[in-house]
Write a structure and sequence with these properties.
Length: 377
């Protein structure tokens, strides 16, 4: 039985598509080549070491009486040069290759080419797509086409695409193995990716970072089409019955699993910026406005900082007065944890309640009373 399984394994694996090593986009192709070059350089030292280990074990085995026996041998200059120079040269080559590739394949950097031999002009405008990871689905916004989709990504073939990526709640990773490496999506932050697809077809996209119960089904389709096909798809999307206004987005943002593809004929203006600023709900202050106001300087304040933004009672549901506006006496204080402490009862009074906690000078009820008073103030 085991022999049959072993013989069938190559045939079964023959149907697998190693998309990471056989991608359809130039960026992913360069990343696959980097893996191959790195593996080849490392094998230059791994293969000889394994081969010599087996050779030495066989040649100097206990039963081989013809092998040289030199119990006092301890040094060979030629051997030391080989042992240290070969790995050193490989490390230098790997370092240079990694440094060059890391800068050339920087996801924030616009593409220099669409494919080998086809240089991309700096004047060529990339297609911008705004990506939002939701629980547990993907939202794609096309500013140029004026449409939005859920779990459906359509790209024009042989055109640079600039992805602006964020998240509505928790961290995920935007990953299309056939196109480029994975990029994190994080709430309140924007990451970017420049990539291209060079072959037509349907590919798979997914989140590669665990984000909760619906993570396993957080997949989306990626269709690579020619310019005419992309224009036709955009026209069909603009005739979709639904529109992505703020009320619809708030409902879409709620956790849901196994969501089918959805198209929206239009979307709320500045929707991506509001998601990025975490201010999609009524009354919330966008983080962009918060940072701009907090960064302003007021010459009448000794600290040099401007008035805090959290003074309206509507910042993400908070109704409390901003801490920066409170005077020191309003904030209260907590028990002084570093105050001198009396000697603990120790072994002189075994079973004493004071021995239950050796980390605080104040008894637990008094400490809790102080903390409660400070919180109420």
């Amino acid at each position: 039985m085991r022999t049959a399984v072993a013989l069938l394994a190559p045939a079964l694996l023959g149907g697998c598509d190693w998309v990471v090593m056989n991608p359809s986009g130039d960026v992913a192709r360069q990343q696959a080549n980097l893996i191959l070059w790195s593996t080849g350089l490392m094998l230059l030292i791994i293969v000889p070491v394994i081969a010599l280990t087996i050779l030495f074990a066989w040649k100097y085995r206990h039963t081989n009486e013809e092998a040289d026996y030199e119990p006092h041998w301890d040094h060979s200059t030629g051997l030391e040069l080989i042992i240290w120079s070969a790995p050193l040269m490989i490390v230098i080559a790997l370092g240079a290759l990694t440094w060059i590739s890391t800068h050339a394949l920087d996801p924030y950097r616009p593409l220099a080419r669409l494919e080998p031999g086809k240089v991309l002009a700096k004047t060529d405008k990339p297609l911008e797509i705004q990506v939002v990871s939701l629980d547990w689905k993907w939202l794609f916004i096309y500013p140029e086409q004026g449409v939005a989709t859920v779990n459906e990504l359509v790209l024009p073939m042989n055109r640079q695409v600039r992805f602006r990526i964020t998240s509505s709640s928790v961290m995920n990773t935007f990953y299309v193995p056939a196109m480029a490496g994975m990029i994190y999506s994080m709430p309140g932050m924007e990451t970017r990716l420049h990539a291209v697809l060079n072959k037509p077809g349907r590919f798979e996209g997914l989140s590669a970072n665990y984000s909760g119960a619906g993570f396993s089904d957080m997949h989306f389709t990626v269709d690579s089409v020619d310019d005419a096909g992309f224009a036709k798809w955009a026209s069909e999307a603009r005739s979709a019955p639904a529109k992505l206004d703020m009320a619809t987005y708030i409902q879409l943002e709620k956790p849901s699993e196994k969501v089918p593809a959805i198209r929206y004929a239009a979307f709320q203006p500045q929707l991506f910026d509001r998601i990025l600023g975490m201010c999609t709900k009524p009354g919330e202050t966008c983080m962009q406005a918060t940072m701009m106001k907090d960064g302003a300087r007021d010459p009448h304040r000794d600290s040099g900082h401007g008035d805090p933004v959290n003074d309206s009672g509507h910042m993400r549901g908070s109704e409390s007065k901003g801490a920066l506006q409170k005077e020191p006496e309003e904030k209260g204080s907590s028990p002084h944890r570093n105050a001198p402490r009396p000697a603990p009862p120790g072994s002189n009074k075994p079973g004493n309640e004071d021995n239950r906690s050796m980390t605080s000078a104040a008894p637990l009820p008094a400490m809790l009373t102080g903390l409660t008073a400070a919180a109420r103030s």
